[in-house]
Specification:
Chain lengths: ~375, ~250
């Protein structure tokens, strides 16, 4: 083994050992992303649309009782059992605690004279600020009634609509969010870590001590990248385990390809931390600069908020951020099952950023 | 004796302020050479230029035939430098720190042997932050010597140590000298310089104002008719130091 490689490996090994002895570091690299994972996992857990309803049955007919039971057992509706009059329901609606109130008026479901089947009209009450939910609800109820009607009155419907999903894999909202969380984890690890401990090592004279030895800057950089990649993969593996066991995350791509992309992402983003931490003389210089660089990426690269929901100009601008192709790439492999060969535009962009970032990092690095 | 270090007309300025003003000195192979002087005299800057940590403005430093300004990388393999005690990563065992330090020179070492040399073998699994001041200084020495350098620089090695730890460190310095290592140290303690140094250079205001063995410097002072108040027949190096650098307090 060449001497310079031996040096790099020993330095990387020491850093990794040190990391596993540092509870604070473990908290910020493992527990902290996991907390986010649980928060976002819980938020996007029920991806189906549900309505919170008040169901007020003023009829005593057999049909109305069956109808109430049917709504209660339907997963789309969450019927609040304690609301039994309209004025109370109105209060709840004004506080947005329920989306709408469905009233089955007296006589609903009775068989009227001269008819062979029950009939009636349900009324949906809604608050002005919830008009959209009420409309959707009306459509859904309409559908329910259509089913009932078809059974009661045999008649041919010439035209109808059937919905069929094209997404075979069943991409859930969590699967989408998870890729963003991986990006968040990479940036936390790659930037906030070195931005804290490089100035600290300068303050303690650790880097000065190394500067006296023949250790070269590139050896120091490579060993730092290596240890960071090991720590990053460790943290991300735990996130994967939690995501797939607790939140039923479905991995659609190849694990090795994803790991390769994530290592490349860590390399790129860690360069930002290395540049800031290596340049800064102390924490007071490092922290504000890190925030200025990291926060736009945290919010605009698609970590927490999908980029497609942004105005077009912002989509263009955020497309140039170094974290964006990393998260896009992760999403394409993990949730769309694409291969590395299919995400070359992203890989190219990451590559260009890596060259730029490390050119800067080498230039601005100082040992003291 | 062959000179291992030759410093000629060495200068350094920070902005308009010249802190090292053209100094010359030589250090012979195997000797302990002390650089003495009040704070701000330029000792540390001088050492840092020799140690390749600071660019040399003017003049030359030749270390065993190697020009420090021209081949700093080569010089780094030849010198060992002891810095302040805290200059090591926390949460890393002493053995691991030594292995890492050696790896910086591309070398593998028997870290337990090195720890035995400085009487820290029973602390092998400790972290640097759990050592006492004296233990840290001893460890710092072991770390600086992992690659068996020809010249060993020590910057105020006993500052802040209690008398026992200090004496212990003196023994260690003498052991290192016996192995044939040349030692250059700075200190504020004159009895330390008298005890350890074969020769000393006294610096003040960026210049070397005296250079000789402690004994000769004392003799010179006595010849000038210096008399101590209590014991007429003796003077210490401390007297020499204060005589030529002045008694007023420096920053």
């Amino acid at each position: 083994m060449p001497k310079s490689l031996f040096t790099v490996l020993i330095f990387a090994k020491t850093s990794v050992k040190r990391y596993f002895r540092d509870r604070v570091a473990i908290f910020f690299t493992v527990a902290f992303p996991l907390i986010f994972l649980f928060v976002f996992g819980a938020l996007s857990g029920n991806s189906n649309i549900t309505f919170n309803l008040a169901l007020i049955n003023q009829s005593s007919s057999q049909f109305s009782k069956q109808f109430v039971e049917q709504l209660n057992s339907n997963k789309t509706f969450k019927v609040k059992p304690d609301i039994n009059n309209l004025s109370y329901a109105r209060q709840k609606m004004s506080r947005s605690e329920i989306d709408a109130a469905v009233v089955l008026p007296p006589g609903f479901g009775d068989i009227k004279a001269g008819q062979t089947h029950p009939s009636g009209q349900a009324v949906i009450y809604f608050d002005q600020n919830n008009a959209q939910a009420a409309q959707t609800l009306a459509a859904v109820l309409q559908g329910v009634f259509q089913g009932v009607n078809a059974k009661l009155v045999k008649e041919q419907t010439p035209f109808s609509v059937v919905t069929k999903t094209t997404n075979q894999s069943g991409l859930s909202r969590f699967d989408y969010t998870f890729s963003g969380l991986l990006g968040f984890s990479i940036i936390g690890l790659g930037v906030f870590g070195p931005v804290n401990y490089f100035p600290e090592m300068k303050k303690q004279g650790v880097l000065r001590r190394l500067h006296i030895t023949p250790l070269k800057v590139w050896q120091f950089f490579v060993s730092s990248v290596l240890s960071n990649a090991v720590i990053g993969l460790f943290s991300i593996t735990i996130m994967f385990i939690v995501a797939s066991t607790v939140f039923h995350f479905k991995m659609h791509g190849n694990y090795f390809e994803l790991a390769a992309l994530i290592i490349l992402g860590i390399l790129t983003i860690f360069g930002i931390g290395l540049a800031i931490g290596g340049w800064a003389k102390n924490e007071n210089q490092a922290a504000p600069l890190a925030n200025v660089i990291v926060f736009p990426m945290m919010f605009l690269s698609g970590t927490f908020f999908p980029r497609y929901a942004m105005p077009l100009w912002l989509q263009h601008v955020s497309g140039f951020l170094p974290l964006t192709p990393i998260i896009d790439g992760i999403r394409m492999i993990a949730t769309e099952g694409q291969h590395l060969s299919q995400i070359t535009p992203q890989l190219e962009e990451i590559g260009i950023w890596t060259v730029i970032i490390y050119a800067i990092a080498f230039r601005v690095f100082r040992w003291e | 004796m062959k000179a291992i270090l030759k410093v000629e007309n060495l200068r350094k300025s920070y902005g308009d302020h010249q802190v090292v003003k053209g100094i010359n000195f030589e250090v012979a192979t195997g000797e302990v050479f002390g650089i003495l002087g009040p704070n701000g005299a330029g000792k540390t800057t001088t050492l840092e230029m020799i140690e390749t940590l600071r660019p040399i403005d003017e003049g030359t430093v030749i270390l065993d035939g190697v020009d420090v300004a021209k081949d700093p990388q080569k010089v780094k393999y030849m010198i060992g430098v002891q810095l302040q005690s805290t200059a090591f990563m926390d949460k890393v065992r002493l053995t691991e720190l030594l292995e890492q330090q050696a790896a910086a020179y591309g070398e593998k070492v028997n870290s337990m042997e090195l720890l035995k040399d400085v009487h820290l073998e029973d602390k092998a699994k400790s972290y640097i932050e759990n050592l006492s001041g004296g233990q840290r200084q001893r460890f710092s020495i072991a770390a600086a010597l992992v690659h068996q350098p020809q010249i060993f620089f020590m910057d105020e090695p006993t500052t802040g140590l209690d008398p026992q730890a200090r004496r212990n460190l003196w023994d260690l310095v003498q052991q290192i000298q016996k192995r044939g290592t040349t030692i250059i140290l700075t200190t504020h303690y004159m009895e330390e310089a008298e005890m350890l140094c074969d020769r000393v250079a006294i610096m003040d205001d960026g210049k070397i104002i005296a250079s000789n063995s402690p004994k000769n410097l004392v003799q010179q002072l006595l010849k000038k008719g210096f008399k101590k108040q209590h014991r007429v027949e003796q003077a210490s190096l401390e007297d020499v130091f204060l005589d030529i650098t002045g008694k007023e307090l420096r920053s």
